[in-house]
Structure formats: structure tokens, C-alpha cells
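From the methods appendix. Each design record in this collection lists the discretized structure first, followed by the designed amino acid sequence. Records were kept in a plain field format so they could be parsed without special tools. The example shown here is representative of the layout used throughout.

RECORD:
C-ALPHA CELLS (74 positions):
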């Protein structure tokens, strides 16, 4: 079975800790990691592509877009 891809999105500075905790939880839980693959922007190395293009390409590859919303907008 192909894993379900989850894109975790938010203003990075506002939710840096929560993004990392959520991604780590999904990746390290024995059951969840069998079914889900997680993408967070900070896990990719610097590239010669524009960040907006990378963002859009990765969103297109994902099955679930998980938005964390707070006080800031980015």
C-alpha cells in the first residue's frame, strides 16, 4: 500500500516547534509511519529553485494539506 502523503504548512517561525513535533510523531509512531509520509519545508536542503515553486510542487504531490493557523500569516 502506498503511504498517504501529508504536507504540514504554517508560518515556520510561529510554529517551528509544533511542526517538528507533529512531523516527528507521525514519522516515529510504529503504526502511523506505515500509512503516512510527512513533508515539512525545513527538511529539504537549500535549492536553486524558488521557494514558492518548491512549495507548490510539494503540495501537488501530497494527499493531505494540514494547515496550522495562528496569529501570523505568511
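DESIGN:
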Amino acid at each position: 500500500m502506498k503511504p498517504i502523503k501529508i504536507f504540514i504548512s504554517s508560518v515556520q517561525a510561529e510554529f517551528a516547534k509544533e511542526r517538528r513535533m507533529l512531523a516527528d510523531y507521525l514519522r516515529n509512531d510504529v503504526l502511523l509511519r506505515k500509512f503516512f509520509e510527512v513533508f515539512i519545508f525545513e527538511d529539504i536542503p537549500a535549492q536553486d529553485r524558488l521557494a514558492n515553486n518548491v512549495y507548490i510542487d510539494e503540495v501537488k504531490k501530497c494527499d493531505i494539506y494540514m494547515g496550522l493557523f495562528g496569529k501570523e500569516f505568511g
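APPENDIX NOTE: The helical segments are 12-28, 32-35, 51-61.
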